TrEMBL record, chains A, B, C, D:
Reaction it catalyzes: L-glutamine + H2O = L-glutamate + NH4(+)
Annotated InterPro entries: Beta-lactam/transpept-like (IPR012338), Glutaminase (IPR015868)
Binding annotation for substrate: S64, N114, E160, N167, Y191, Y243, V261
Native source species: Kaistia hirudinis
Protein name per the record: Glutaminase
Similarity comment text for this entry: Belongs to the glutaminase family.
Top-level taxonomic group: Bacteria
EC number(s) given by UniProt: 3.5.1.2
EC category: hydrolase
Length: 309, 309, 309, 309
């Protein structure tokens, strides 16, 4: 087995000089300002050791990576009846597609595309006012990251509010089918804030560690979810975590993960490690281009795969 | 860890008395004649021991399970350039959908839906006449099953020939885009024969074992494919192996598998075991109803999951 | 040529006793309260004579029939550049479909489906505040109906506001593509009010008469639009006026018309007559069931067809 | 009213020098060889006078224009029960789309798109062998054109046979739903031959004249269909005759017509005239670019429109 730190350093070194870096997301104006040259990588191993490389301490907008955490929270709140309102099949469509909702009468295909995440957020609102729900999510993230400096980037949140018409369309459309229960502005408001959470690779790798630890946090040792739920969340990440590039990610990288348009990807190797990588440029299906490549190299070098013993 | 044989016996016993058994596929007349009460289960473990329960020695039509084996053959023949003609993303559509082909210009989403498997078969025809290709596939299956009694059920093959207009539509449609290179009747003819291969659970579990053994056959010790290719085929099975129920199977069962409308499912636990189950009744997305339940129970009882350490 | 009044009386008499009347629209609660037994019919002939039968003086909610009038207004305001923002092809989809908008990047297929009418309303808002735009539309309708008692049913408008999430979805979705220029609540607000205009068959037949008179109002003699524009609006009505039943209406009835979910249909026989019919029960594609039948009988009896000399 | 011959001459003169002529259909190799500079125009008026301009006597491949004639024949053979197997709604999709067939279970939207025309041809085969059906269609065309020199271009027919995989896909797909009753090769074989009929503008204008004459042929005086059927065929042409450009044609030209990928368009002004135009270059939805423009100019100059008195 190669030395993990050397592997990370080598990857970070090579990625720094990559010329083809993908395109930074432009539809949220605040995100468009991010420097495409940044690259960070962090790995927390089962023994609680953290390895980092590159800009691993710089906070970035986690965007859709947040969908895994709100799913975890909502499952904790209402349990498996959540699955009456959202499916768990890959979508075969872009992240923001509305087509499927028409054919399937307002039930989104899975909780890791925008429509599904809006339903999950709507479930979270059952017991809370929007402000409270945002507070709840933020404190959950701080707890998981074991770091109270995790924050919501209000500029990004406002930018999403100002331009989030596609998400409002999805929410209104599902409300027409009765699958959004609160005011659309409430649900989208909380959603825009959860997407605007800013975290560093270091924080994100730590936060993801309960999914590598069969539900137990690798650093704090706290049980966050049951073993079965951890496995199942990993299954949903593997089949649906990279939008219409999920099959390719499973094929090339071979571990569960979730990407965000901010350029972050969180991934887990069950029983071994949790990982966060960040590179703002995206490939054509909306996942971090260099982030995906870095994970492919890392998994290969460390012989990490869920499809191997 | 519970005793594997006891687990299998208990499952077979319970399944024998299940009242809700799904509906036997009717669109291939020969398949419609199969007795829905049959149930078989076989597991080959890494040490080369075979455990069976129920009708594990009765041959059934493997149908789409054959897609994994022709994919393996075609990758062996032409390598990864195969992926220029077929994708590896879940389809988000029924197994026989033609819609996606129109939007994606004749490139099927993955090799485990009908359209994709037809392309794979078309690739196999590059060096062979139809009769030769059929012979090649059959002898590959006999070798993998370590059993020369594996055969093609000619009645089923003829029944498919007589009713396979949907598959001819797919093949003609892709040929209009240049993605079928041989005469449509050649490609569909070979395809209908590969689907008509008859195998027992015992044979199928043995045949699948190279995917559990990182490319090495668990019984014969022969290397069939490289470690990386075995992992990747498993990845494709996990994301695409159960049509529009692939996400649900990953969620509930947690291991790679491939189903067929004959009621068979083949599955693998990397490093641990290969499995075949057979129950002819299908659920609404076209996968064996009791077969899926049996695998869910088996995986849970044995604590088998690729989403766990 | 039979006597028009006798034809109308006979139709109204038969329709009164029809047992199969279709289903009243339920998705707008106020509309669901309407008595399905009502039936009205009015015809204004080119000589300015008005014939009526049944409940021809009872106001009903014109709903989508309003789309023809706002289209007329918007074309008057901005001219044919309107067609840069909306197509004029039949949709091949239900009236409220959002699927097509995704494939065609926010450009609705025609101005007589909901998405297209929202764009038209958005165009109308260019020079006006919402209140002013509503006032403008109402006074246009009063002028055309030659009757100042035409009014907006505020209960219906409020009912639409409370339940119009599908339309908000469409508007937000098009705004994401830049094809709605004003605040979604402004555009949908005006739209909900135009749909809530209440008119009787008598008023509606009079209002439609400029389309039968090649742009000149049959009663007042005022020119409302040019000859060419009148013809073109009729062409759009013929190909797109009955949602996904437009082809069938052209086939059976043979004249241009526009239906609304309130059960009204307005139709014109160029050079001869304008017609309004009302029966609240709808067929499965959302057009008045008895209204369509009544128009088919009327056109046949009077030998009215645009496909004949 | 301007002089018709002068109008035709002027149009032909201007079209001869048009630089933007569209693209000749390339998917049928024989059609790709046609000279894009050709332009012909013929008008038969109600008094039986024929006016021509340009290459009006040169035969071209009528292609989909034939769909109107086989529809007429099939309605004559089986009557309105034909409509159980094919709809009459505009498709909202390209001429060769297969998507709609999946959603609507093998029932094509209308008889003027490829799928619908294949069903119509299949209906024609009920009482005939393929050779006989082809003979029947050809003699019907010769009778209507009042000219025995109308012929089937065997080179074009063969070219279609060799490349018509898209149409075979449609036919197989509908056969899977039971909506093609004969062998696919029979139905497509007849279809390819009807498409390969070669006619001049002069012949086509004469052949179309029964649709301008409310069912009676303008030249021979023979009744071909009833008045009602003539109107209804015109209605189907208006709503569906130009594929996904039907709405635009109705809007701009305002008369029923049917186009073919050979560059021909046949059109009728009920009670006044039948028209044929030919220019091989197509616009982006597959209709003759200059042919459409010529018809728009002709209709405008002669004040022909079904949307006017």
């Amino acid at each position: 087995m190669p030395n993990l730190q050397s592997v990370l350093d080598e990857i970070a070194h090579d990625m720094a000089s990559a010329s083809e870096r993908g395109a930074v997301a432009r539809y949220i104006p605040e995100l468009a300002k991010v420097d495409p040259a940044r690259f960070g990588l962090a790995v927390l191993t089962e023994d609680g050791t953290l390895h980092t490389a590159g800009d691993a301490d710089e906070p970035f907008s986690i965007q859709s990576v947040s969908k895994v955490f709100t799913l975890t929270l909502a499952l904790g709140q209402v349990g498996d009846i959540l699955w009456n309102r959202v499916g768990r099949e890959p979508s075969g469509n872009p992240f923001n597609s509305i087509v499927q909702l028409e054919y399937e009468h307002g039930i989104p295909r899975n909780p890791l595309i925008n429509a599904g995440a809006l339903v999950v957020t709507d479930v979270l609102l059952s017991g809370y006012k929007p402000r409270e729900a945002i507070g709840l999510i933020l404190s959950f993230m701080r707890g998981l990251a074991d770091d109270d400096s995790v924050f919501i980037d209000e500029k990004v949140a406002r930018s999403e509010e100002e331009t989030g018409f596609g998400n409002r369309a999805l929410a209104n459309y599902m409300k027409a089918f009765g699958n959004i229960r609160h005011a659309v502005e409430w649900t989208t408001g909380v959603y825009f804030h959860q997407c605007a959470i800013a975290m560093s690779c270091r924080q994100l790798a730590v936060a993801a560690s309960f999914l590598a630890g069969e539900g137990k946090h690798l650093l704090t040792g706290n049980r966050i979810v049951s073993r079965e739920r951890a496995r199942r969340i990993n299954a949903v990440m593997l089949t649906c975590g990279h939008y219409d590039g999920s099959g390719d990610f499973a094929f090339r990288v071979g571990i569960p993960g979730k990407s965000g348009v901010g350029g972050g990807i969180m991934a887990v190797v069950p029983g071994k490690a949790s990982i966060a990588v960040w590179s703002p440029g995206l490939n054509k299906v909306g996942n971090s281009l260099l982030g995906s490549l870095a994970l492919e190299r890392l998994a290969k070098a460390m012989d990490w795969s869920i499809f191997a013993p």
